[in-house]
Amino acid sequence: MNLDTIIAERKDKKIYRDGNLSIKVFDETYNTAAVLNEALNTARIEETGLNIPKIHEVTKIDGKWAIVTDFIEGETLASLMEKNPDKEDEYLELFVDTQLNIQNKSCPLLTKIHDKMNRKISESKLDATTRYELHTRLGGMKKHTKVCHGDYNPSNVIITADGTPYVLDWAHATQGNASEDVARTYLLFKLAKKDALAEKYLKLFCKKSDTAIQYVQSWLPIVAASQLVKGKPEEKDFLESWINVVEYE
After folding, report:
1. What is the pLDDT at residue 245?
2. What global pTM score does this model have?
């Protein structure tokens, strides 16, 4: 495999292009179970028929785990939005329509979102009273079986030359209540300081899906708690301000 061309770099992984292949190479310290789970999620999502990079193999390169998938030629929605601000509404429509298409699929073997969120709340360093309130709130949410991406943002959507959207990075995919995934996307926009886009996205999604904005907002303390577990100091104060479970009542 040719690892001369880096197309993306994160703190714990690098992504290379080798012809028609994309090779994601993880650091030596990266959790093996997490790598294999990402590969398994990708394989399961592939079976739904969604437009995603198909997986070719899971291997080791110089002692490091690597996942090999199709390379999708195109440009991310994030890049297109930045280059063409006058087309933001058009791109946002495509972004929401693509998310709705994902959520119309089912994938019974994916982790259930309620199980994952309960675990994240338990792992948080929040006080016992707050954790109890969050668990109780989560328990009151309707249990669905829709595919949820888990990190749905414009940088994970590639638009090919013919306008077809492909969705990348299924490491956090689950099945469950679609409004949790919408609340997470809204949170990601807010964390990126794109407040106006966050509000526009939420209104558009709720209009297209006939979902009450208040219902999505009721998920915000839960997704904020799960994000807090990542331990990013720069996000701590903002996330804690959202973990007020009565704020959106």
Report:
1. 53
2. 0.93
The answer on pLDDT for 25 being more than 50 is: yes
> Average of pLDDT values for 180-197?
97
- The arithmetic mean of pLDDT across residues 50-72, rounded, is 97
Q: Which of 81, 89, 74, 104 lies closest to 164 in space, CA to CA?
A: 74
**The sheet that has 21-26: what strands, in order across it?**
5-9, 13-18, 21-26, 64-70, 55-61
DSSP states along the chain: ----EEEEE-SSEEEEEETTEEEEEE-TTS-HHHHHHHHHHHHHHHTTT-S-PPEEEEEEETTEEEEEEE---SEEHHHHHHH-GGGHHHHHHHHHHHHHHHHT-B-TTSPBHHHHHHHHHHHS---HHHHHHHHHHHHTS----EEE-SS--GGGEEE-TTS-EEE---TT-EEE-HHHHHHHHHHHHHHTT-HHHHHHHHHHHHHHHT--HHHHHTTHHHHHHHHHTT--GGGHHHHHHH--TTTT-
Match 């888990």 to its residue by tokens: 150
Which of 208, 230, 205 is CA-nearest to residue 219?
205
Q: What is the pLDDT of residue 247?
A: 46
For residue 112, the model assigns a pLDDT of 97
